[in-house]
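Field log, afternoon session.

UNIT: design team B
ACTIVITY: writing a sequence onto a fixed backbone
BACKBONE:
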């Protein structure tokens, strides 16, 4: 999971991706439409990964759907935080420390 967040943050460092995904997409399409697109793609993928982890017994017994929403929100906020940072390298390191701690807190491993 932390690899997926790190890949997401790396992608969001690209100016074009950052502009489309974090700024223009939600503004141009409107929040409801943008959210529907995210739910159909990103949220579904996160839910699938969480469901697989739950089946394997590595995820604590938590409701998958709300957990997926919270993790998606955290990833989006992490990208926005990184984007606004004056020291992206330090910000990314700190974000990944937090992501790793969150994952450890959600798993039985």
């Amino acid at each position: 999971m932390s690899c997926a967040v790190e890949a997401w943050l790396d992608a969001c460092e690209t100016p074009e991706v950052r502009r489309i995904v974090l700024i223009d997409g939600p503004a141009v399409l409107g929040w409801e439409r943008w959210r529907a697109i995210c739910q159909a793609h990103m949220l579904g993928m996160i839910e699938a990964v969480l469901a697989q982890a739950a089946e394997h017994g590595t995820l604590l017994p938590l409701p998958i759907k709300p957990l997926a929403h919270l993790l998606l929100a955290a990833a989006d906020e992490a990208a926005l935080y990184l984007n606004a940072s004056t020291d992206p390298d330090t910000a990314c390191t700190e974000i990944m420390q937090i992501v790793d701690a969150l994952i450890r807190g959600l798993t039985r491993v």
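LOG NOTE: Residues 31-55 form the longest helix (25 residues).
NEXT ACTIVITY: expression trials, pending approval
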